[in-house]
Amino acid sequence: MALHLGDVVPNFQADTTTGKIDFHEWIGDSWAFFFSHPADFTPVCTTEMGRTAQLNDEFAKRNVKPIGLSTDTVEEHLKWIEDVNDTQNTTLTFPIVADAGLEVSRLYDMIHPGESTTAAVRSVFIIDPNKKLRLTFTYPMSVGRNFAEILRVIDALQLGDKHTIATPADWEVGKDVIIPPSIDNDKANSMFPQGFNEIRPYLRTVKVDS
Ligand code: BEZ
């Protein structure tokens, strides 16, 4: 099933390293960073899991709950987490879904046969508290994800929701943002009393609080 931005993501029940979950219930009023990786006891995945655990406070600050997935069992995940903690100098506490039967991987289209028919590629789903898919990207097995980018896109989505703005190329927290074309200048004047910069009628930038 193709997942589209703005869709409510499919719910599922699954075993994880922190017990059985109903995915939508588990998300609750938080955002979710749901990500798959090919396999336990593999090098790139070990660094990604470690990085996610190290960024625990950064995710919590943004009201985001991380949750991993691979097509391994809970027992394998739990044994591997010991290695992740040892080698990446961290304490991994977020759940990892055990999807040995590939049910969730198939539901979320994480199996890309050109890469593997039995293991998930590196998918990312950023899901909001309404359970809507807000952003997704997919990396091949051979390329580890950039976690600064994952936090950056979460910041951009949350700032967009707060101020009804868009973010320009290479935006980072603190930089000017963009007033979308759907907001005319009269509306922009009332929404942004601090004033804005009209570079072109369709290109207007503004400073907002984060
Ligand atoms: C890794 O995590 O290192 C990895 C897993 C599957 C294929 C390639 C790399």
Description of the molecule:
- The protein has two domains: 13-145, 3-Layer(aba) Sandwich (Glutaredoxin); 164-206, no CATH class.
- 28% of the residues are buried.
- Helix 2 packs across helix 4.
- The strands form three sheets. It has a five-stranded mixed sheet. It has a three-stranded antiparallel sheet with strand order 8-10-9, with no helix packed on it. Strands 1-2 form a two-stranded antiparallel sheet.
- It is built from seven helices and ten strands.
- The model has no long low-confidence stretch (mean pLDDT 98).
- It has helices at 23-27, 43-54, 56-61, 74-88, 103-107, 147-163, 185-191, and strands at residues 13-16, 19-22, 31-36, 64-70, 96-98, 122-127, 133-139, 177-178, 197-200, 203-206.
- It is α+β, with helices and mostly antiparallel strands.
- The radius of gyration is 19 Å and the shape is elongated.
- The chain binds benzoic acid (BEZ).
- Benzoic acid (BEZ) is lined by residues 38-39, 42-45, 141-142.
State the CATH architecture of the largest domain.
3-Layer(aba) Sandwich
Can you tell me the overall shape?
elongated
Beta percentage is 15-25%
User: Could you say which small molecules are bound to this protein?
Assistant: benzoic acid
Distance between the termini: 36 Å
Low-confidence stretches: none
Structural class: alpha+beta
Number of domains: 2
CATH fold description of the largest domain: Glutaredoxin
Instruction: List the strand order in the largest sheet.
Output: 5-4-3-6-7
Share of helix, binned: 25-40%
